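seq:
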Amino acid sequence: KNNHRHNKKKKHGTTTKISEGSFRDKTSATINASNLVSLGDVVREPPSDKLDPEVNYFSHNSHLRLFLYRQFGIYFEDLTSEESHEAFREFAKSYNDGKL
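struct:
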């Protein structure tokens, strides 16, 4: 059995990367929000400076790590690069919409 994070499939003489799926597939049901320290109330107001998922990925990595763990019980290190970028796009949308 192949235990790689990505399988490769040959199609018409070329190799195509097949992704496993969404980062949400790695969600843990073991996070009990009542055991987490409160970070304060959600402002529910969009920020004046919006995040750009393509530009701010590295500068907001620590925010992404916290978001992943608190929302989904996922450790950043358990994601592929593709999955972490997908997660950051979702984080940036929630942030830009004032939902965090």
